[in-house]
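User: Hey, quick favor. My workstation is busy. Could you predict this chain's structure for me?
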Amino acid sequence: PVTAASNYQPTPQQVRDDWTEQVAALLVASPSNPTGTLLGEQTLREYHAIAAARGGCLIVDEIYHGLIYGEQASTALAVSDDIFVVNSFSKYFGMTGWRLGWLIAPQAYVADMDKLAQNLFLAAPTIAQHAALKAFDEENINILETRRHEFRQRRDFLLPALRDIGFDIPVIPEGAFYLYANCSRFTDDSFSFTAQLLEDAGVAITPGIDFGINQPGTHVRFAYTTSLENLQEGVRRLRDYLS
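Assistant: No problem, here it is.
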């Protein structure tokens, strides 16, 4: 399992140790959900080398890539052009619901992927494609960059506020719009904890069970996808509830 010590990402050594004959590919996300952590270029290079040496593929989910709050991270394609990179209009562009994205793949796989796409969904709707092209206009990009800065302001408020209440957040999220917090000071059953919090305080957060089997009972995810004013009110309710 991953830990805060590895930035909640698998280490290259873990990948080496766990790659068996049954493994065909390594799938990672940067930034990730629920932790918001990034993969550095050196780590991606090591992943790629491991996959290549074993005849496998590296697939990198970069769906949250536009929502990064420090130095802009380079795409995995900067490492090699034989990496699969997944992206979407859902997050940075705020087009959730349009179900529109893209996949950059090694040339050798394109023909087979095209056949698969034609049998699964054929093509994106014409109106969605025109909307996606419009999203790249300078005016829209300016709006989206303003929105990204607002996300950072929300993160910078919520992170210390939650730590002050008693949540352990050892890793500062570098992207996406989530905070992954250890809630063991308050509970070892995050599912019941979040259900009761919603019922009694009107605050909605996500239990760790939604993100796998690694200590789900002692972790929760906070999302700062609402206004700063709502976050401030949520923190007030949370503090009152836990006190």
